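From the methods appendix. Each design record in this collection lists the tokenized structure first, followed by the designed amino acid sequence. Records were kept in a plain field format so they could be parsed without special tools. The example shown here is representative of the layout used throughout.

RECORD:
FOLD TOKENS (224 positions):
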């Protein structure tokens, strides 16, 4: 994407009612006004809040919102030019249960209150295979602790990935830490018992992975 196009999208994001772009200093100083008030002040209801972390173009966020109008969905990503697509689609379709938050995932506990989130989706994250990059892996112990701070006590986390490495790493970690693994499979499209919301929603890149013969893996779990 050209820099001209990116700038255009950044400007459009500023006008979108469903895009929140807090300033880092505001977040770090605990001055973010929506913390603890997302349901009432942003969505205007008391429905459960579901996050998609590293949402990219927001395909999963938007599709989940279409499928579950009784829940509120927030796509989280640091790249504004990407989430522009999901935000624009949601506005065009009048999907009032969708929002997008441009921020770093490390700051989630500054943006959401304890027990404010009911579910988290992590879809096709960078597996960060190199050892030096483990601190950026979205299912490492530090991130799991972060999610626990904002999730309701029985909150669910979903991990959907094309990376056997990420799947295996996460599964081993969850077992080692004694977390509650509710469902796990290394090939969701090759398994007739796969959860419906996992196989009925497919991102563009997911379709490409499948064409290449890659298997899509999935884990659903709760933190102890």
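DESIGN:
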């Amino acid at each position: 994407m050209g820099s001209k196009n990116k700038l255009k999208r950044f400007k459009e994001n500023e006008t979108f009612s469903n895009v929140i772009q807090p300033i880092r200093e505001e977040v770090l100083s605990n001055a973010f006004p929506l913390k603890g008030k997302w349901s009432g002040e942003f969505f205007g209801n008391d429905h459960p809040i579901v996050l998609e972390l590293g949402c990219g173009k927001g395909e999963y966020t938007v599709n989940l919102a279409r499928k579950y109008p009784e829940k509120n969905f927030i796509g989280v990503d640091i790249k504004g030019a990407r989430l522009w697509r999901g935000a624009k689609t949601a506005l065009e379709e009048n999907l009032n249960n969708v929002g997008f938050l441009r921020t770093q995932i490390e700051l989630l506990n500054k943006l959401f209150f304890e027990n404010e989130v009911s579910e988290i989706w992590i879809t096709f994250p960078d597996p960060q295979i190199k050892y030096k990059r483990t601190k950026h892996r979205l299912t490492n112990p530090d991130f799991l602790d972060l999610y626990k701070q904002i999730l309701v006590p029985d909150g669910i986390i979903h991990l959907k990935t094309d990376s056997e490495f990420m799947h295996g790493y996460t599964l081993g970690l969850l077992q080692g830490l004694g977390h509650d693994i509710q469902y796990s499979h290394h090939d969701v499209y090759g398994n007739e018992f796969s959860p419906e919301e996992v196989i009925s929603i497919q991102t563009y890149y997911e379709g490409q992975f499948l064409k290449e013969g890659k298997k899509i893996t999935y884990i659903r779990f709760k933190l102890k």
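APPENDIX NOTE: The mean pLDDT is 93.
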